[in-house]
Amino acid sequence: MSGHLKTLTRYLIETRQAHGAHSTGDLNGLLNAVTTAMKIIANQVNKGALVGALGNQSDDAINVQGEVQKKLDVMSNDAIISETEWVGHLAGMASEEMEDIMPIPSKYKRGKYLLVFDPLDGSSNIDVNLTVGSIFSVLRAPEHKGAVTVDDFLQPGTQQVCAGFALYGPSTMLVLTTGHGVDGFTLDRDIGAFMLTHPQMRIPEDTKEFAINASNSRFWEPPVSRYVEECLQGKTGPRGKDFNMRWIASMVAEAFRILTRGGVFMYPTDNKDPSKPGRLRLMYEANPIAFIIEQAGGAATTGRQRIMDVKPESLHQRIPLILGSKHEVDRIERYHREHEQGLDREFSSPLFNVRSLFSGQ
Length: 361
Ligand code: AHG
Ligand code: MN
Ligand code: MN
What we know:
Elements: H1 8-19, H2 26-47, H3 71-84, E1 90-95, E2 102-103, E3 113-121, E4 132-140, H4 150-153, E5 162-168, E6 172-177, E7 183-188, E8 193-198, E9 209-212, H5 222-233, E10 244-245, H6 251-261, E11 264-267, E12 280-281, H7 282-295, E13 299-301, E14 318-319, E15 321-324, H8 326-340, H9 345-348, H10 354-358
Parallel strand pairs: 1-3, 9-10, 9-11
Antiparallel strand pairs: 1-2, 3-4, 4-5, 5-6, 6-7, 7-8, 11-15, 12-14, 13-15
The protein binds 2,5-anhydro-1,6-di-O-phosphono-D-glucitol (AHG) and manganese (II) ion (2 copies).
């Protein structure tokens, strides 16, 4: 029974009353539509093979990223569009699954926001029944009356009005920030409402857990190799404690774990494919998750720059992403600085004794 818990609807109205005395309620209207789409997607993910939702869209369906589209990638994209385009709060949308931006059709009222989303994150996990999710970011649309352009979307993450993600796991969850901390909700399927179950989530500043796809290790830059190697050395290395490792291959699930018990997630730049400066996309993966992680007391960086300060150059731009517990992310940034200054040369030397140089840091 979740009768004692606050519904998302009540939470949104109370939050608006507390923080947006002059606000119109448009953002709440938009969030209501986005979260309805998430319930539709959750239902399809949950029913899986029963409703023919698994598998690839077709033998040759490739998205703009050059990745094979799953049926649920397409269905989730369609659900978000059809639930939000008509509500009158958007001027345009952009999605991982659409090459170009989508201005709101002229038959609908134009609104003051832009919606950017990854309709299904971690879609390689669909067919193996592991957690996937949807990520979204809300930006302000320009005041001008003309059709929105790609340039209107290319705002740094610091400009986000709101960011959130849904998690389709053992429970369906929603994590949300409007810049006043991070709140988590669990879907009560019996009444069809998200309930506030995880108010004001905070990420512990220290951690003993990291997540990285180690199959890329030969392509990493030295600061990342150094960090991971020191974690692996555990109690006998410079960190003086044993670390645990996780890799789910759904960033949403990794982000939720970090919000719950701390940790670090890394998809750093590497030299595997020089045309790709990272795996994840800035606008609809890195920025919204970075906003949430920062609002929960964590940090998110490329290794060299705060993610939310990056000025986007293109809609589907990829970016190196390192996020999680504040002290660990600070340490990894320091390793990047030390590498650039040539101060980590000892790290690659066979004579290097890390403990004597970096003890206690
Ligand atoms: P998407 O399914 O939207 O393309 O994103 C998947 C992303 C991210 O969620 C995950 O962390 C990463 O790709 C997994 O990458 P690997 O396949 O290299 O492990
Ligand atoms: Mn994704
Ligand atoms: Mn996706």
